[in-house]
Every structure is written in C-alpha cells, then in structure tokens.
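REQUEST FORM: STRUCTURE PREDICTION
Request ID: SP-0412
Submitted by: Lab K.M.
Chain count: 1
Length (residues): 209
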Amino acid sequence: MDMRRLALPMLLAAAGLGLWMLLAGAESLFGLDLGSIGFAVLVLSAWGALHGVWRLSLTDAELQVSPAEWKAWIGTAFMAAAVAYFVARMHVFQTPSLADSPEAQQVGRNLVMLLVAWTVLSSTVGRRWKDRVQEDERDREIEREAAGWSRHAVTGMIVVLAVLLGISPADRLQWASLPMIANLLVLVLMVGCLVDNGASAVRHWLDRR
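STATUS: Completed
RESULT:
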C-alpha cells in the first residue's frame, strides 16, 4: 500500500494520542509528565502534516480554499486543543500562589508553547500560498462577522462570571482563588479566540458549498 495514503491516518492517530495525553487525568506515567509528552506528540504531528503538505503540489480542491480559510481552520484546531487542555487542568489553579504550584506552572508553559506552535505553523503555512491573494473583501467581511461573534461570546462569559462571583455566598467561593479567577479570565479570552476562528472557518466553508 502507498505509504502516502497511510501518512494522514497515522498523523491523525498520533495527534489524537497527543491530545489524549494532554487531557488525561493522570499527571504522569512511569515518572514521565504526560502533558509534556502529549504536547510534543501533538506539535510533531502538526509539523509532520505541514511537511507532507509542503511537498505536494496544490490540488484543485486546495485551490478552492482561500488562505484565510486555511488559517482559520488551523486556528480552530489549535485553540480547541488549548481550551480543552486548559479546562481539563483548571483544578491546578486552586492554589493561593502559582509560585507554590509546579503543576500550574507546567500547564502554563504547555499552553504558551502550544500557542507559539500555532503562530509559527500559521505563518509557515501562509508561505505555501505566497503567490495567491492572501485576503480579499469577502475574507475581510467574514473576519468582521467572526469578530462580532467573538465579542458577544467574551461579553456573555464575563457577565456570567461576574454574576456568579457576585451572588454566590462566600462559603461557596472557596474555589475562587486569585490565580483561579485570573486564569478564568484567560480562558474567556481563549474561548473568544476559538469562537473567532471557528465562526470564520465555518462561514468560509458555507460560502463554498
């Protein structure tokens, strides 16, 4: 069987394994940090897919997808993984000080590296379409609509969080340490970015149907 046909399923399986390691409840396996291993597997899978795509010539199907849509789908995938990982690890931020929590520091490092990998990957993928128009009026209109959805999502989540903290009795807010509240606000921004990219990707896809 042509190895090229097996490459994509293998990379998808590896990415799924890496994501599972990031989200797994166990902190370590045989003394190794699962989060760090999962992050490495996920990023290497993405780079492997990028390398394979880079070596192939542009197909007719690929040419129908604008560079802006490709970037939106990549952003959606990476932000979905980052949000899922952040939510699965939120319990580590229930600490009076991040300096006293190595687990929280590790989660923060993994998230930063995941977002850096997304930025670098998006920039590198853009070079594949360097000879094409990167953005037209249609792309800008979709970007404005997606930004609107993102603003509504961020506003709604901030209102919900403010109401929750404002009306809850003090004895039920033991979970709301300062690091937890700060990271909840970071999560709100991340979800807003996910909505932005997701809405843009879906709108592009619907326009092509």
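NOTES: The chain has a mean pLDDT of 76.
Reviewed by: T.R.
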